[in-house]
Design brief:
By secondary structure, the protein is α/β, with parallel strands linked by helices. It is built from 14 helices and 15 strands. Bound molecules: (4S)-2,6-dioxohexahydropyrimidine-4-carboxylic acid and zinc ion.
Length: 357
């Protein structure tokens, strides 16, 4: 049994760092592990153009260590133009994100028209200036269990056909339909995979069993797209185990104050950062393909985005004693922000140790 893993310093191609004061509370859980992270733009206020991006990047740089590189994105809306894209690219945007309006946290004011209209001009501008299109692939108005399948079947193939060579990432794949489409599509189409979608099914949210065997709702496993059936989870696990470069790490760590999740209309989003890389390692270990973790977390995403590979390494070891117990909450000094950690109280199979020399 391997007791130590040395990986290339990893990248996280999908994370929500939020704005202050949440940013300072949660960023470290990501920056302690990942050298670069693609930062989602569905903040409050959102990141819609070059000016927003510059302000937000300064906020992140101020709150994070010098060796962490935020990879910036903008949120596309019905009002985004090719000129907005070009300016955002010059300011450093590496991707633009489609949130169908209303489908998830921070998606309001996103895209509401998916046809071959103005959106296609925006996509062409993205392709021409080398920006990646990141997609939250859920169809508005369609129930959660088939919303991704519906978007994958009805929208994405047209986008691929209308704008060939546009790099497109189906974010946080949750269904066998999404996995199948990504596998079959040209090499310009890829997917991020989260620890939640590799380990949970809908039953872990809607029919959760606690350690006493009581059954109920677990809002801290709840995210959009929802984890789905065992078969869906199996296809996602198989995709990463196959070693295909089209599937890479993007943990979708998405913190909310715990009160906002344990609420009558609880927020979607899982704060998985403290357990993110260890959970990936556990899954690859279970699948008997630990040798594939390095590329999944440190190579495939960078190559897809056309970024140089990170220098340096990170070491994972099997924890001894209480070292691998996930804390229950992260709480800010003034206690205004308290976030429940995913897998709170559980013992991780791997933990991050110091950098190898
Ligand atoms: O569950 C989710 N939470 N899905 C998203 O797409 C957004 C995210 C958030 O920002 O909290
Ligand atoms: Zn997300």
């Amino acid at each position: 049994m391997t007791d130590e893993l040395v990986l290339r310093a990893p990248d996280n191609f999908h994370v929500h760092l939020r704005r202050e004061p949440m940013l300072s509370l949660v960023a470290r859980a990501t920056t302690d592990v990942y050298r670069r992270a693609l930062v989602m733009p569905n903040t409050d206020p959102p990141i819609l153009d070059a000016d927003d991006l510059v302000i937000y990047r300064d906020e992140i740089i101020h709150a994070t260590p010098a060796d962490f590189v935020p990879l910036m994105t903008i949120k596309l809306t019905d009002a985004t133009t090719p000129a907005v894209i070009d300016a955002a690219r010059v300011a450093g945007a590496v991707a633009g994100k489609v949130y169908p309006s209303g489908v998830t946290t921070g998606s309001y004011g996103g895209v509401s028209e998916f046809g071959a209209g103005s959106l296609i001009d925006v996509f062409m501008a993205m392709r021409d200036c080398g920006m990646v299109l990141c997609v939250h692939a859920e169809m508005p108005g369609v129930t959660w269990s088939v919303a991704e399948q519906s978007f994958i079947d009805d929208i994405i193939p047209d986008w691929i056909a209308y704008v060939p060579d546009l790099k497109l990432v189906v974010e946080h794949v949750s269904s066998s339909s999404a996995v199948a489409l990504v596998k079959m599509a040209p090499d310009t189409v890829a997917a991020t995979v989260t620890p939640m979608h590799l380990t949970l099914t809908d039953d872990d949210i809607l029919g959760y069993r606690n350690h006493r065997g009581r059954r109920g709702l677990n809002p801290h496993n709840f995210c959009y797209p929802m984890p789905k059936t065992d078969y869906d989870r199996h296809t996602i696990r198989e995709a990463v185990a196959s070693g295909s470069p089209k599937f890479f790490a993007g943990d979708d760590s998405a913190p909310h104050r715990y009160q906002d999740k344990e609420a009558p209309c609880g927020c979607a989003g899982v704060f998985c950062a403290p357990a993110s890389l260890p959970t990936y390692a556990e899954v690859f270990d279970e699948l008997g393909c630990l040798d594939k973790l390095d590329d999944f977390a440190g190579r495939f995403g960078a190559e897809f985005y056309g970024l140089p590979l990170n220098e340096g390494t990170i070491r994972l070891v099997r924890p001894v004693g209480d070292a691998g117990i996930v804390p229950h909450y992260l709480t800010s000094p003034g206690r205004s922000q308290s976030v429940r950690c995913w897998r709170a109280g559980e013992r991780l199979g791997w933990i991050v140790a110091r950098e190898a020399p």
